[in-house]
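Thread: "does anyone have the structure for this chain?"

Original post by V.I.:
We have the sequence but no experimental structure in hand. Need at least a predicted one for the grant figures.
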Amino acid sequence: MNISQIRLITFSPTSTSRKVGEAIAVGTAIPTFEITELTLGGSPMPEISADTLTIVTVPVYAGHVAPLAMQRLAELRSKGGAAVPVVVYGNRDYEKALIELGDFLTERGFRLIAAATFIGEHSYSTADKPIAAGRPDASDLARARSFGEEIRKKIDAADSIDGLDSVNVARIPRQRQPLIPQPRFVYNVIKLSRSTVAKPRTPEVDLQLCTNCGYCATICPSGAIAKGNECNTDSSKCIRCCACVKQCPHNARTFNTPFAALLFNCFKQRREPQSIL
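Reply from O.Q.:
Generated one for you, tokens below.
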């Protein structure tokens, strides 16, 4: 069948989801390629035609698709066009996020022809507590391109959109979790949430390092940082994506959450991408 173009739709505060999506798109070798970047908002999306392959890549926050991503996808529609949902998580678990995204796209008229889970550096990862640091790495991106190649083969083998078999994303292979780390993590999260230990709700700013350049305000996906008032972050808007921390040109921002140590201690074992076609 003829798929003439790709639409990559991504929400990617720290660029991990976007990198994965771009690698998948490149792997398909479909030449016409358009990106809809939802991280900083965006204009309303037109209904996507049936001759377009739609790849949607989003991060996982606490086992769910990032809520702000779901809000910005709300107007997405198609009449039977092929779609590939992809979730990117920080090496712990994506839980029901892929099913959430798959159901969301199906309800909006898409046919799911493939799906995948990839690993990206965790928002809370730091130099002293690395959590999937540097991911997606070269191996992940190679897997993403190979996944794109397999999608293209599936498309080429079909006579029409109706000939493309849909996938049940709930049947994607799942890596076995080590027996001890997950319950240990859950126990400690509950213990920490009940404790009186101070837990920061927003990144902190080092006033000695901050130059009020305004870059953090420019890249904040939720508008939690106002230009001219960069040393304050609106806790009611902050989604703790840590884009401002990871991309501050002066290293003036930190997010010292105790949950970082739990993730670092419990989920050191490397997890690998999984896909279904």
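V.I.: this helps a lot. The chain has a mean pLDDT of 93.
O.Q.: and Residues 138-157 form the longest helix (20 residues).
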